[in-house]
Amino acid sequence: MAALAYNLGKREINHYFSVRSAKVLALVAVLLLAACHLASRRYRGNDSCEYLLSSGRFLGEKVWQPHSCMMHKYKISEAKNCLVDKHIAFIGDSRIRQLFYSFVKIINPQFKEEGNKHGNIPFEDKISSVKVDFLWHPEVNGSMKQCIKVWTEDSVAKPHVIIAGAATWSIKIHNGSNEALSQYKMNITSIAPLLEKLAKTSDVYWVLQDPVYEDLLSENRKMITNEKIDAYNEAAVSILNSSTRNSKSNVKMFSVSKLIAQETITESLDGLHLPESSRETSAMILMNVYCNKILKPVDGSCCQPRPPLTLIQKLAACFFTLSIIGYLIFYIIHRNTHRKNKPCTDLESGEEKKNIINTSVSPLEILLQSFCKLGLIMAYFYMCDRANLFMKENKFYTHSTFFIPIIYILVLGVFYNENTKETKVLNREQTDEWKGWMQLVILIYHISGASTFLPVYMHIRVLVAAYLFQTGYGHFSYFWIKGDFGIHRVCQVLFRLNFLVVVLCIVMDRPYQFYYFVPLVTVWFMVIYVTLALWPQIIQKKANGNCFWHFGLLLKLAFLLLCICFLAYSQGAFEKIFSLWPLSKCFELKGNVYEWWFRWRLDRYTYSIWASSCKNKAECNELHPSVSVVQILAFILIRNIPGYARSVYSSFFAWFGKISLELFICQYHIWLAADTRGILVLIPGNPMLNIIVSTFIFVCVAHEISQITNDLAQIIIPKDNSSLLKRLACIAAFFCGLLILSSIQDKSRH
Q1: Which residues are tagged catalytic?
Q2: What helix, strand, coil percent values describe the chain, rounded to 5?
Q3: Is the pLDDT of residue 407 over 90?
Q4: How many Cα atoms within 13 Å fall on the side-chain side of residue 12?
Q5: Of the candidate ranges 334-338, 504-508, 532-536, 588-592, the one whose mean pLDDT is the lowest
Q6: What mean pLDDT, rounded, does the chain reach?
Q7: Cβ contact 253:54 at 8 Å
Q8: Close Cβ partners of 331 (under 8 Å, ≥ 6 residues apart)
Q9: Helix H segments across 271-310?
Q10: Which residues have C-beta within 8 Å of that of residue 297, sequence separation ≥ 6?
Q11: Three-state DSSP class for 102?
Q12: What residues form DSSP beta bridges with 344?
């Protein structure tokens, strides 16, 4: 009865909700979300710097999440590179001094917090010519005004960045009197035009006062209340924002520190000064505000304009636009023809006469339709990860964000099961199931940021190795059993593996090696093909007739293993081979092939280990490829125990397994964000709903791309050898043109 109810329920769901209707719903959702985000950007503004300076929240104890964008964590070398020959000045009280120390420690972590607390503190890095000064001016008064006024003179060198702020000393010295607030307003009114003048040539930030933790304040600071601080902040914002008529003030309000302090002030030692972690966050925000527009880090960080379109991207946009227009014209003509051929009524007999029409779809229509769909999908990719339309957030790992979704998909996988059509070891349904659950686990691993948790990281390495094992096993079995070494088979596999990645390299302006898994499976496919296709070609039919051929196959595999070991332990030889043009264009990332060597070497034997004993990633990665294939073989043996387990498979996992490659590639830009460094936010303020909606759209897109790839493979890679050779010549010409354009682009960038 339970099985009958399950089958009836599934049929009912499939009747009302098909894959096609799901894709239509996903398209409607994308259009609505894009319209909402576009309207929000126009209403609230499109300057992510303002969001960085004024809004955000903590994802954890130390992970600060700005509104709509991400924060880059600057390394020492990056900070020095950005600030070379720059002068930064901090002016204010002890809180500004704290911010000064945290900022300097980004450049030089060994810098000690020492010196006269109530005096000026200089810092200079002579190698990079970076100068950072703290100027002690605890009150907004004539002394601070004179310091700022000197910089406004034409003959004086001005700091490139000025960070100023003060108020608590005025509250303390004057016992929180209203007269002190009035004097503060007068003083800041006299300083405002000077700051505005400086802001025309320098970056000027006014730091609003952070709240205090009143219970911890000492007796001589009890008059510093949050009510007084709010009044001083309101005065500063009102006066500085109205210092220019009919235009927006160039002096930027650094108000985000207030939000940071609200979450962390209870950890303060004296109730006034922030804990070190909060100061570090504020200092990193300052570094992001100034340096992101200079270094342009590729990680979805704030304060960056949309990257300009490259020549290749413009040509791709023209191609897809023409494809969409061509398909629409074709569709209109076809529809009109179909209307003319509708059955007409015989006036004498009253019966319909049916015209005989050819209902088969032409290859041209399939081609135009496929590129039309692909063009719309690529537009969505670009909107998600290049156009700054949708929001992005940092990843933040907790055990619950990884393990709870794992439990959910496990329950669904067990619930949706069917009987297998065949029970041989590693049959198609079983391998699709295996690929499916592995891919879902890898997706959860990526979106949860679980790479920071070493045991999970090593388990995922096992899954990646198992995926490569399956790929290698499948290709080896095909060649071994069927003996089909024809060019058509090779081109079909290479096209299906690489089509989406090549399109993304063009549209998203990313190198081929960026999508590292596809180069891995492509290279290993070619390795297996070349090994088996070279003379003597040894296949199952030939080997069954003579055991000598088995020995010949073992010699081939032994020689292959020797070559793999040589390249794995000879980094120099490996890099020389893959640094040759045009291979370098495919396998270089950030100007070298080290990442490709690392990825290739890590899974060179396609097996993994249980590595809970290793202490860090470097140690784990070193051990990972050197241990036997025990875990993969163990899983195969357990999964194929004779009986019930071998006769059923999870249709839920198998469905995802059929589109596993598309899921792995598409996640880079339309599920994750900033090239996998963050998370795409379609629905802000509701993380659970956002994950549900973005996942739904992501899966629909991956499934559609899988169908598009299969359709195009049938047209672009024909079975007829003469036609195939002509197509290959066209493809070769296309890639030659792409390489030339890419070289021109690289030269223009440098």
Answers
A1: 94, 270, 273
A2: 65, 10, 30
A3: yes
A4: 6
A5: 334-338
A6: 87
A7: yes
A8: none
A9: 276-295
A10: 72, 78, 304
A11: helix
A12: 353
Listed in sequence order, the residues at least 6 apart from 350 whose beta carbon sits closer than 8 Å to its beta carbon are none
* pLDDT tens-digit map of 208-258: 999 999 999 999 999 999 999 999 999 999 999 886 665 678 899 999 999
Give the helix/strand (H/E) hosting 89.
strand 87-92
Q: Would you give the end-to-end CA distance of the chain in angstroms? A: 70
**Using the 8-state DSSP alphabet, how is residue 673 labeled?**
E
What is d(CA 239, CA 637) in angstroms, rounded to the nearest whole number?
Answer: 75
Point out which residues pair with 125 in neighbouring strands. Answer: 130
CA–CA distance, 512 with 584 (Å, rounded to integer): 10
Q: Rounded CA gap, 105 and 111, in Å? A: 6
> Is the pLDDT confidence value at 154 over 80?
no
Mean pLDDT within 58-68? 85
- Across 221-241, b (16+ Cβ under 10 Å) vs e yields bebbbeebbebbbebbeebbe
Confidence of residue 619 (pLDDT cuts 50, 70, 90): low
pLDDT in tens, 358-393: 456 788 899 999 999 999 999 999 999 988 889 999
93 and 138 Cβ atoms separated by less than 8 Å: yes
Question: CA 732 to CA 713: how far, in whole Å?
Answer: 16
Tokens of 299: 């990680």
> What does the block give as tokens for 83?
């600030």
* Integer Cα distance of 58 and 64 in angstroms: 5
Q: Check pLDDT > 50 for residue 263.
A: yes
- Cα separation, 661 vs 681, in Å, equals 23
Bridge pairing between strands 672-673 and 678-681: antiparallel
Q: Please identify which residue in the block is written with the tokens 């839920």.
A: 652
Instruction: Report DSSP state, residue 679.
Output: E
Distances from the Cα of 703 to the Cαs of 18, 416, 654, 710, 715, in angstroms? 13, 19, 13, 11, 19
Closest to 377 measured CA to CA, from 728, 53, 731, 701: 701
